[in-house]
Amino acid sequence: MFELLKAGGILMVPIVACSILALAIVLERFWTLRASRVAPPQSINELWRWIKKKELNGRKLKALQGSSPLGRILAGGLINAKHGREIMKESIEHEASQVIHDLERFLNPLGTIATITPLLGLLGTVIGMIKVFAEIQLAGVGNAGNLAGGISEALITTAAGLSVAIPALICHRYFIRRVDELVVNMEQEAIKLVEVVHGDREIDVEGA
């Protein structure tokens, strides 16, 4: 592997660095964007039971706020529920904007890696071909060994760049879709909470 990286030339260094960074982001986002962490059903069901039995208090609100990103959004709305529907909605939207920002963390760098690694590979290809033509100019086409070195460098960097970019792009698109799904789910729960608190909807929770 080291010989392969060495044969690819200096541009293999940033390509390898991008691959390590992309892997770290992918693993972190897979762990962070789990539905059981972002919007745990048990916490939400417990909230509905608290509301139905009128057991909601400051301590439980604080526990809800720290339980999950969705809990943070709902707690933000409940804290200001007494000020009316519009203020409650504004509080939910304010908390939701911060939560969504956290959910999208590192996705821009992952997209950037998916974009620049093929370009780095292409740059390596150009550099390799420049070396090939420089060798031809100096020694002619008779020295096949030297020509093969430049061609090999060109092909290795291209392959390495694409090998990093393709999985990074797939994961980036997947995480964007995943965030969208989580946001829709949280939005539905927030709307339900506003309607329940202001008497427009009955609580229907199994076991509540």
Describe this structure in words.
The longest helix is centred in the last third of the chain and has 54 residues, at 144-197. The protein is mainly α and 208 residues long. 82% of the residues lie in helices and 0% in strands. Keywords: Cell membrane, Membrane, Protein transport, Transmembrane, Transmembrane helix, Transport. Its main location: membrane. Pfam families: MotA_ExbB. The chain crosses the membrane at residues 6-27, 110-134, 154-176.
Secondary structure class reads mainly alpha
| Main sheet record | none
Shape: rod-shaped
Q: What is the radius of gyration? A: 27 Å
Low-confidence stretches: none
The overall strand count is 0
Which bin fits the share of residues in helices? over 70%
Number of domain modules: 1
Summarize model confidence as the mean pLDDT: 86
How far apart are the first and last residues' alpha carbons, in Å?
59 Å
The count of helical stretches stands at 9
Q: How much of the residues is beta strand, in percent?
A: under 5%
Please write the string of helix (H) and strand (E) elements.
HHHHHHHHH
